[in-house]
Amino acid sequence: MDNLARIFRAQSGQVLASLMYLSRDLQLAEDALQDACEQASKKWLVQGVPENTVAWLHLVAKRKLIDKLRQQSSQQNPNTLQLIEQSLYVQDDTDLETDYEVPDERLRLIFICCHPALSEAAQVALTLRTLCGLSVREIARAYLLSEVAVGQRITRAKKKIRDAGISYDVPNAKQLSIRLPSVLKVIYLIYNESYSAYEGQTLNRQDLANEAIRLSLLMVKLVPNAEVFGLAALMLFHDARRLSRSSATDPYITLEQQNRTLWDQDKIEQADVFIHKALEYKQRGPYQIQAAISGLHSRAKSWETTDWAQIQLLYMSLFHLHPSPVVALNLAIAKANGGLLKQAYEEVVTLKNELNQYQPYYAARGELESRLNLTERAISSISKAISLSKNSIERDFLIKKRGQLLKL
């Protein structure tokens, strides 16, 4: 059953997108796909998994969709029903494993999920549900929400799509350029959530990261663009270091202390390819710059040989492009690691009002104060970081660090 679940999740986005384009009704398409998956669960366990699983699911789901449209009353959708029936040219269940290409309408679906008329929270939930095939329960556990709350969020988003008459077509060039940042932001939000998801959940940290990376690679295929390549590179560089972030004895290992031989060189090479493709467009953007920074970390042989000067320049470029206190904090940390410890600390202190509720600010500030032997201040900053931590592993790491300072 786990294998079937993986198949359904991997292929649901493409099938659902095609059904949605045919029916112009996201809820109806989702119901038809769910029925097809239930039928597959029964048949495949007896008959075996077909060679072309996506074609099997697509054709059975289209039949389910026709049944639902007929139940609603074909008079309401005569043209839609006729279109779907015409596309259903395979009539016998025994022919479902033929070499059949499923229309790929996922580009339409991702731009609908990330339409600016929807809230950011709704965009994330709808993307995970439709394009990634995650259940409401999995999404709820990942974001520490109730299933009811997530279900309502998705239902409201679908209703807004229907009531607002949001187009099911691929946006034109102007609309695409307007909506693309929102799409990329949602994908990155999903990836970032993988860092704060709790242990022991059905949907754990790496599951979320995998879904975000899968979406980014899909975007590389569907909308090759400088920032699309940049985001894919950024997440691959980050994910290449996953195995070194924890061990059997240490649940959290900082970048400085990580065993770099554990880094996934295949992902680093793939990310390198993407960042070079991004640079060919000569269109500077924040994801490309962040990817370049992560690439410098990923290619450094050790913490000591990291090119902190180049990282500082990249953060300065990022700040000029998108000035924010978080970027300023990262720039200051790069300066500290590059030898400008006192200057960096002074800059960090000035960010307090803007980052007063930002946990990484206090964790970084405590680290700099510890290096400057400002022990009491470091203890205070780390205590504040602990109070703002949402992740138990992160909290335990900071508590241990505070304990070491208290012994001094």
Q: What low-confidence regions span 5 or more consecutive residues with pLDDT below 50? A: 90-94, 198-204
Strand content: under 5%
Helix content: 55-70%
Largest sheet: none
The end-to-end span amounts to 54 Å
Output mean pLDDT.
86
Shape: elongated
N-to-C series of helices and strands: HHHHHHHHHHHHHHHHHHH
Find the structural class using helix and strand composition.
mainly alpha
Features:
single chain, Serine Threonine Protein Phosphatase 5, Tetratricopeptide repeat
Description of the molecule:
- The chain has 408 residues and is an all-alpha fold.
- Among the domains are: 2-95, no CATH class; 324-408, Tetratricopeptide repeat domain (Serine Threonine Protein Phosphatase 5, Tetratricopeptide repeat), CATH 1.25.40.
- It is 68% helix and 0% strand.
- The chain has 19 helices and no strands.
- It has helices spanning 2-23, 26-47, 53-72, 78-87, 106-113, 120-130, 136-142, 147-163, 173-193, 205-222, 226-240, 265-280, 286-299, 308-321, 325-337, 341-349, 359-371, 375-388, 392-406.
- α1 (2-23) packs across α3.
- The longest helix is centred in the N-terminal third of the chain and has 22 residues, at 2-23.
- It is elongated and about 75 Å long.
